[in-house]
Amino acid sequence: xxxxxxxxxxxxxxxxxxxxxxxxxxxxxxxxxxxxxxxxxxxxxxxxxxxxxxxxxxxxxxxxxxxxxxxxxxxxxxxxxxxxxxxxxxxxxxxxxxxxxxxxxxxxxxxxxxxxxxxxxxxxxxxxxxxxxxxxxxxxxxxxxxxxxxxxxxxxxxxxxxxxxxxxxxxxxxxxxxxxxxxxxxxxxxxxxxxxxxxxxxxxxxxxxxxxxxxxxxxxxxxxxxxxxxxxxxxxxxxxxxxxxxxxxxxxxxxxxxxxxxxxxxxxxxxxxxxxxxxxxxxxxxxxxxxxxxxxxxxxxxxxxxxxxxxxxxxxxxxxxxxxxxxxxxxxxxxxxxxxxxxxxxxxxxxxxxxxxxxxxxxxxxxxxxxxxxxxxxxxxxxxxxxxxxxxxxxxxxxxxxxxxxxxxxxxxxxxxxxxxxxxxxxxxxxxxxxxxxxxxxxxxxxxxxxxxxxxxxx
Length: 459
What we know:
Blueprint: H1 4-12, H2 18-36, E1 39-42, H3 44-55, E2 70-74, H4 101-108, E3 112-117, H5 151-158, E4 164-169, H6 175-181, E5 184-187, E6 202-203, E7 206-207, H7 215-219, E8 221-226, H8 229-239, E9 267-269, H9 280-295, E10 300-302, H10 311-322, H11 328-331, H12 340-347, H13 354-374, E11 380-384, H14 398-403, H15 406-414, E12 418-425, E13 431-437, H16 443-458
Parallel strand pairs: 2-3, 2-4, 9-10, 9-11
Antiparallel strand pairs: 1-3, 4-8, 5-8, 5-12, 6-7, 11-13, 12-13
Helix pairs in contact: 2-3, 5-6, 10-13, 10-15
C-alpha cells in the first residue's frame, strides 16, 4: 500500500491517472466491502467527476496538495448532498445541504471523496456497530473489533479502500481504531482543526458551530487516520486553521517537524495512565518505543507525570454531566430507535448544577497544570493507546469496552496532541500501538518524534 507522497509522485510522473487510481480503489471496495462494511455510502459518481477534473489539469501545478487522492469521511461529519446518519435510525433520511469546513478544504486541495464510513451511533462506542448498517469488521482479523468510533475509516485505510480517512477523536476514537488496525491516527490539539458541523452540531441540514461551553466540543477534534505519520501530517496541514465559525479554533501556525531538534525533546514513557492495568504486551510495546527513541539519541526515562492517574475519574464525571445534553433535541420522542449503548449513555447522564460542573473543571485544570509543569522538562510522553489489543467482537460489554481506553481518555482530558503509531504485534497477531504525546499546539513536535519512531521501526 502506497503512502500519499509516493502516490503523488506517481501521479505527477504520469505512471497512472487520478481516474485509474480511483478505479483501483473502487475495485477493492467492490471486492471486499461486503465483508468488512467499512464504507456505508459510496460516492462513486462524485468521486469519478473529481478524479476526471484532476486528470484535466497538469498535475501538481496549482499547489493542490491532495490532487487525486481517495479519502473517506466518518458518518458524523456532513458532506453536501450525501446522506449522513451518525449511525442512527433517527437520521436514516438526513441529507445535509452543506459540507463541514474540513471536507470543503480537502476537496479544494483536490482530494477525491470515495464515501462515508461506518461508525457507532452518534460516534460514542469503542466498537463500530449500529442498528442501521451493522458492524464493521477488522481487515486483519474479522473476529476482532476495528475499534470505534472511527472504525469505518480505520478499516477502509487498512484495507486500502482509501488513502486516508477523516474521523474524529473524543476519548480515543481516532487512536484506538488506528491501534486495532495497524494504521496511524493523529489527534491534533483541540482548537487546531474546526469542528463545525460535526454531529450533533447540525441544524436545518446545515453545519453549525460547536457549543464552546461544552466539554464534548472542547475535547473532541476532527482528525485523520492514514498509513504513515507523514500522510497524517499532510492531511492536518490542509484541514487546520480557523473557519470563522468555530470559536474554539485558534489562529496558530503549524510548525515544521523537519525543524525539530529531537535531542532537545526529553521524553518520558509510562506503561499506562495509572487508573487501570495494561497487558504485559502493551507495556512491552511502550518500553520498546522508548528504547528505539533512546537509540536514535533522545533522552528517555520511565516516569509518569504526576496526576495522570486522576484523569479517568475526572473524564468520567465530566462526560456524565456534559456529554449528552447536546443530543437531547435530536433524540426527543424517538428514544425507542436508539441502540442499547446509547440508552445506557442517556441513563447514566447526571443532572448537575453549574457549580458541580465548575468543580469538575477545576479538578481538570489542577491536574492539567501538574502534567504541563512536568512536560516543561519532559515535553514528549510515550503512552499506550489502550490497555490491550483489539478485543474479540462480543467479548467485551459496555463498561469493558470503555475501560480499555483509559490512556487515550487521559490525553483527551488534558487537551494534548497525540499520534498513535504501530510498533509491535500481540501474540494474537494484532497490532500494538503507542501514542506520542506533546504539549498543546506543539503538534509538529509530536509529528517529528512519531516520524522518527516510524523510521526506527523501518530501519
